[in-house]
Amino acid sequence: MSDRRSLNKLGRVPAALLAVAAFAVVLAACGSSSSSTTTTSSSSGGSSSGSSTAAASSSASSSGGSAQLQADYKKWSTPPATIPVTTPHTKPIPKNVSIAYITCGVPTCTYIANATAQAAKVLGWKYTTIAAQPTPSSIKAGWDAAVRLHPTAVLASGFPRSVFEPELQQLKKMGVGVFECCAPDPPGNGLTMSISGPADQAFQGDREAAMDATLAKGTPNVLYVNLPEFATMKPELERYLAAMKVYSPSAKIAVINIANTAIGTVALMRAAKTRAGPAARAAPVSAFAVGSARDVPHA
Q1: Of 3-12, 82-91, 161-170, minimum mean pLDDT range
Q2: Residues near 71 by Cβ (< 8 Å), separated by ≥ 6?
Q3: Given CB 3.0 to 4.6 Å as the disulfide criterion, which of 1, 65, 103, 228 pairs with 109?
Q4: SS3 298
Q5: Claim: this prediction has a pTM higher than 0.90
């Protein structure tokens, strides 16, 4: 039986560190909806959501922002030499703690599950993974399973609280801490902690654009597979399009929206190739962007 008295300690330090460390190491990208396609050029398409990269366009060179691109790519592709958290945790680690992680149903969440499970093992805590598919009904069922487990804390990622509000309120009454990643809701009213929200995820668009513009052979011809059911994907796509205007104004970009249920299927790749439109089919696609490229198979 979990020690409920350890919950306050959990919220202050250990579980917060568990959630932050594990979730921050693997930034989840999640989402999806009905299939649709938009073709654009980075010289004219896309909107900015306060992108620091887009703001730097005034200093970019007329050749497509090559100086800015080189600097940003080097900065973001260089692994950090140190871990910024250096203050040791000196207080006793709470005992009899149980953690439940509700997966979001895409491979990215498997990375999160593995990271948080390892963190829990180091701390000596019980850890349970609740498998869910990336649909509202399955996610809600996962939260219901978490309520029945009555853990010390619940970790989750990807979906807004509106999908599981009744279960969240049950957990609140039970005194269970809830830590979420990569979702649009701020903490409060049952949600103990929320990290890597829309503003944080938007930054991924800058990094994706820098990678695509650098690694593409010649002018980037991009097929961007978007997952709009995940709320954090919208600002990420906007930032991607804005950054590509700076890095490679002549790039051709086709955006296709796909359903969560298509993630990880060969049908997704075939549909993308079919629906991407002439901009992506005119030449071999030289860069492929998606909320999580690992979630898309090659066909």
Answers
A1: 3-12
A2: none
A3: 103
A4: coil
A5: no
Tokens of 51: 């992108």
Can you read off the two tokens belonging to residue 123?
Answer: 């701390």
Length of the chain: 299
pLDDT for the residue 226 = 85
| Helix orientation angle between 165-174 and 136-149, rounded to the nearest 10 degrees | 10
Helix (H), strand (E) at residue 209: helix 198-215
Q: How far is CA 132 from CA 6, 119, 192, in A?
A: 28, 21, 21
Give burial (CB, 10 Å; 0-12/13-18/19+) of 220. Answer: buried
| CA–CA gap between residue 272 and residue 251 (Å, rounded) | 18
Given a contact cutoff of 8 angstroms between Cβ atoms, the answer to whether 293 and 264 are in contact is no
One-character DSSP codes across 222-253: EEEEE-TTSTTHHHHHHHHHHHHHHH-TT-EE
Whether residue 274 is predicted with pLDDT greater than 80 in this model: the reply is: no
- Enter the tokens of residue 78: 């260089």
The Cα–Cα gap between 227 and 246 comes to 24
Q: Is 269 exposed, middle or buried (0-12, 13-18, 19+ CB in 10 A)?
A: middle
User: Is 34 a residue whose pLDDT tops 80?
Assistant: no
Q: Is residue 116 within 8 Å of 99, Cβ to Cβ?
A: yes
State which H helix or E strand residue 142 sits in: helix 136-149
